[in-house]
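anyone else get weird line breaks when pasting these?? whatever heres mine. first is seq + tokens for prot A
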Amino acid sequence: MIAISVDPPRLSEALRRRLDLPMRILSDVEGTLMDPLHIRHDGGMPPDVIAGEVAKINPSRDLFLATNFLLDDEGVIRWIYRPDTYRMRASIDELLRAIDALESDQLAQKEANSRSHVSRNWNARL
């Protein structure tokens, strides 16, 4: 599991340590990765938030929505939670259901591939 933030690395690392997170937080200050994923909310920052440290880091009014992507073993995106507003987050229950569903699908696919492989080997012997 990784997180990607638009905050500078020093702020992301401070957050990771403060919350004792067992994962890396990658920094994408310019939105290089986030823009192709279509999670920028142009002009979405409320006026009262644009002040102090935030203004130094991000002088624009753009926000990046807290979006969750669940990838399979091949790196294919299988589930996305993309909120309508920066105030929304996927619930733990939603994330766990998506993970369980992906794991079930992957297990079923592996079993189907295994049966197919056995069938091909059996037919090759005939």
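and prot B, same format (seq, then tokens)
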Amino acid sequence: MRFRTWDYVALALVILGAVNWGFIGLFRFDLIAAIFGGVEAIVSRIIYTLVALAGLYCLSFFGRQHDHSHVRTEHPIR
């Protein structure tokens, strides 16, 4: 599977969302809301929406064909 730029952006957003949910679950602290002015702030809502869309996009990773052309095959020892 070859990653494209959008794949990395989406993966970074999903990781950001996962870290934020970890903070919420462990510490009752919403990092995104704290940085961008609260849950109702427009910037926070945009980031939450981008994280959700990135998560949906990352589902496409499961349906992609695997490209193994970069993997070198070893000959068995005889």
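btw re prot B: The chain is about 60% helix and 0% strand. The mean pLDDT is 89.
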